[in-house]
Amino acid sequence: MVVNKIIKYLLFTYNFLFFLGGLIILGLSIHTRSNKADYQITDEVLPAINLLVFVGAMTMILGFLGCCGAIREDRCLLVLFVMGLLSVFLMMLAVGVLGAISRTATAQEVVKEHLKELLPLSKQPKDVQESFQQLERNGSCCGLFDGPLDWGNSTVVPNSCNCADISTNCTVFDGRVIYSTPCMRYLMTWLDRVSESLMGTAFAFAILMILAMIFSSVMFCQICVKKGSII
Fold first, then answer.
1. Among 39, 206, 182, which Cα is nearest to 121's?
2. Whose C-alpha in 51, 109, 123, 141 is 20 to 30 A from the C-alpha of 90?
3. What is the tens place of the pLDDT at every residue in 37-55?
4. Domain boundaries, given as residue ranges, for the chain
């Protein structure tokens, strides 16, 4: 019995995709962790980001091992690949669970408590203020909870609160037309989208990993039969 060529090259293709996927996950997670202030990453969410860094690195390594094992028809590499892939699968499952938990009301309250520590915004370092002003422009919002009052007083409310789009919700404050929507609503919507993307990515990778483990197991059995027929 010879090794099925279709399974062999399908497994190689899967592993190459794993390698690229691991590279993307590693790059995005490192970027997010390095710029956690810009993305408002709290200490409660940081473990999930750290886990993604580890998963991305492991996926790259396993993708390389799987490619070599498939092309060389090496049983040892295939065993290492399957065992490692099972470990990463369980970690990805944990990431999906953390993503689901981050959408609960309790997690949102934790985020709100963390952001309350930034008030008043005018007392924060300049780089934090600039990041938040960019958030106000992108989200067409002003302040965090109580609108412009979160900046401290009317004299320090930045121009990023000025209502540039009359189709959005605007109000008059101290003679200025500003956004009436607090940025907390925009942030919660963004967090929901991030958690949905996180769970969707974990689910898609889980499907690919299950298929790769099945193909690897079939190929491993075929190699064992092939080796046995030679002896």
1. 182
2. 109
3. 665 565 656 676 777 788 7
4. 5-108+189-230, 122-180
